[in-house]
Write a structure and sequence with these properties.
Low-confidence stretches: none
Radius of gyration: 18 Å
Mean pLDDT: 89
Strand order of the largest sheet: 4-1-5-6-13-12-11-8-9
Number of helices: 8
Order of helices and strands: EEEHEHEHEHEHHEHEEEEEH
Oligomer: single chain
Shape: globular
Number of strands: 13
Helix content: 25-40%
Distance between the termini: 43 Å
Structural class: alpha/beta
Length: 274
Amino acid sequence: MSLPAGRVPCVWVVASHRELGNEHGHPQKYTVMDEAGTRTLVNLGLQPVCFPRVPAGRLGLMLDMVDGVLLGGSATNVHPRHYGEEPLHEGMCFDEGRDVVALPLVRLAIERGIPLIGFCRGSHDINVGLGGSMHQSLQALGGPVVHWEDPNETLDEQYQERHEVTCVPGGALERLTGCSRFAVSSLHSQGVKRLAPGLVAEAVADDGLIEASRWYDERQFAWAFQFHPEWGHQQHPRYARIMAAYVDACWARLSSRAMAPAGPDPAIVLPEVA
């Protein structure tokens, strides 16, 4: 069965919520989409869509309409209550409106076999959504690798490669990128403390911090990247291979939906979140 003419995979780009200035000079709350992620999806032939403020009982209905999920970066953090901790200090920036959608959506996407990818904060959504925890401040930990950006740099400078990662020997990322070690961008102040059940590490920085992980069953495309393969994939061959694999997974999902008989997808059983 061929796909109907004009059909392209739609990818749910999970929204963030920010307070921004308006033309009257007063802060106002806005729902926003990750620009780098949406631009990259369009450039690669996919169609980004957004369902903001989705009630819990409606997540599955919205998910039935898409062929992939993208969790982009953000200046906010997942609230530590979701992994049993209190905020490390006052003034930390959270987005609980995103938490309430992103965290259960991670599990639901995997249960339904829908391609899932997360970058930076999005990788934290995946780890916490599946029961992992985060280092709340890498700056407080110290160490030999600087993972965070210099606020005085331009945006393009901030997204340049900052340090290298080493792939797990013989792992899926080494096979996908065709190399065992490569340079990555790095703009984050948090990182994985406890990797969630069901995720396996695929790359680490020189200080041991996990930089890439995936769902243990490679038949399910569900990847979390601490770095930003969506930014600069046209110049960075390793990033390009990562994004191409995600695009292929979304097309495969669309094709399987077109050919499948009506009815729910086979269930994937996930471990319980503690």
